[in-house]
């Protein structure tokens, strides 16, 4: 990005980050001498940067008298914006340079279910040099396309999106989520046919269940939601039922909601996905650990 801030028009396009740093340092230190020492510059260099910034903006930012140095009202406002810009730049640099020391794993709903805690603990024990961070993003790619994570846990194939590669790390059973007082809640398991006359609640962005699981002549009605909390709240009323991955049962126990296995439904493949051609260096280790956890139950 260089050392200039971006802008659409006018003087803002020519404001440099070094100028903003000087302004903030002058205000924080209360003098040009203190700012110069803080920034490792000469005092004349600090004065030049401030003068250049005031010239670009066309307004005085620092009021100088023989007895005091203080920001003008405009200087206070500009400095507040400058602090935000500099903080964002620091975050940007950290983001770009932390690839080998941090692994962000995205998920949409239920992370890795009962394996979530074990994954985090074993990762910390075996790979302490790479900090693991779980990031919840309710999108079709669990934050991968949005840049929110390095690896994503997904339960729907991404075969149609050539931007990503993925590997299956395990399988999960499908469970039906029901209101606790639903007649089916008394059973140990249910069949898809038991749900054909119900209303199915589905997250259209990340859900693993579609009406295509039922024969065309006996498909349930469908309503849609976008958040796990909303999904659980509606299911608890008894108005709808949900069919979801086993991991949801483990990650989201909720008063008023019970989970029963759907014994004639195909299991759900759990995948780790990453950007094609640019895997995180720890991708292989994550795949190996998760595959082992799922295989060992």
Tell the overall outline: elongated
User: How many DSSP helices?
Assistant: 8
Sheet-strand content, in percent, reads 15-25%
Helical residues, percent: 25-40%
Termini separation: 47 Å
Low-confidence stretches: 7-12
Largest sheet composition? 5 strands, mixed
- Structural class by secondary-structure content: alpha/beta
CATH topology of the largest domain: D-Maltodextrin-Binding Protein, domain 2
Q: Give the number of domains.
A: 3
H/E topology pattern: HHHEEHEHEEEEEEHEHEEH
Rounded to an integer in angstroms, the radius of gyration calculated over CA atoms is 27 Å
Name the strands of the widest sheet in spatial order: 4-3-5-12-6
Kindly describe this structure.
This protein is of the alpha/beta class. The protein is 34% helix and 22% strand. It folds into three domains: 10-97, Winged helix-like DNA-binding domain superfamily/Winged helix DNA-binding domain (Arc Repressor Mutant, subunit A, Orthogonal Bundle), CATH 1.10.10; 102-168 and 269-295, D-Maltodextrin-Binding Protein, domain 2 (3-Layer(aba) Sandwich), CATH 3.40.190.10; 174-266, Periplasmic binding protein-like II (D-Maltodextrin-Binding Protein, domain 2, 3-Layer(aba) Sandwich). It has helices spanning 17-29, 32-39, 43-57, 73-97, 116-126, 228-237, 246-251, 283-295, and strands at residues 62-64, 69-71, 102-107, 131-136, 151-154, 164-172, 174-179, 199-203, 221-225, 242-245, 257-261, 268-275. Strands 4-3-5-12-6 form a five-stranded mixed beta sheet, covered by helices on one side. Strands 10-7-11 form a three-stranded antiparallel beta sheet. A two-stranded antiparallel ribbon has the order 1-2. Helix 5 links the parallel strand 3 (102-107) and strand 4 (131-136).
């Amino acid at each position: 990005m260089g050392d200039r801030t971006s802008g659409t028009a006018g003087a803002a396009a020519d404001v440099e980050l070094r100028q903003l740093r000087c302004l903030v340092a002058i205000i924080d230190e209360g003098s040009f001498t203190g700012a110069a020492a803080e920034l490792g510059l000469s005092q004349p260099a600090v004065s030049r940067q401030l003068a250049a910034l005031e010239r670009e903006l066309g307004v005085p930012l620092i009021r100088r008298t023989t007895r005091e140095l203080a920001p003008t009202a405009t200087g206070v406002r500009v400095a507040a914006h400058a602090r935000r810009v500099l903080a964002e730049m620091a975050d940007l640099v950290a983001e770009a340079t932390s690839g080998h020391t941090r692994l962000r794993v995205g998920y949409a709903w239920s992370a890795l279910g009962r394996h979530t805690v074990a994954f985090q603990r074993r990762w910390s024990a075996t790979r302490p040099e790479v900090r693991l961070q779980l990031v919840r993003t309710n999108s079709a790619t669990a934050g991968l396309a949005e840049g929110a994570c390095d690896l994503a846990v997904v339960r729907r194939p991404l075969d149609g999106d050539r931007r990503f590669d993925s590997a299956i790390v395990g399988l999960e059973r499908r469970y039906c989520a029901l209101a606790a007082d639903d007649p089916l809640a008394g059973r140990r398991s249910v069949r898809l046919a038991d749900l054909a006359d119900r209303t199915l609640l589905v997250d259209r962005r990340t859900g693993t269940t579609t009406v295509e699981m039922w024969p065309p002549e006996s498909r349930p009605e469908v309503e849609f939601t976008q958040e796990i909390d909303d999904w659980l709240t509606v299911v608890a009323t008894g108005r709808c039922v949900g069919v979801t991955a086993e991991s949801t049962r483990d990650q989201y126990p909720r008063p008023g909601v019970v989970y029963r296995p759907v014994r004639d439904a195909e299991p759900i493949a759990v995948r780790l996905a990453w950007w094609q051609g640019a895997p995180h260096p720890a991708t292989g280790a994550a795949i190996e650990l998760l595959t082992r956890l799922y295989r060992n139950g």
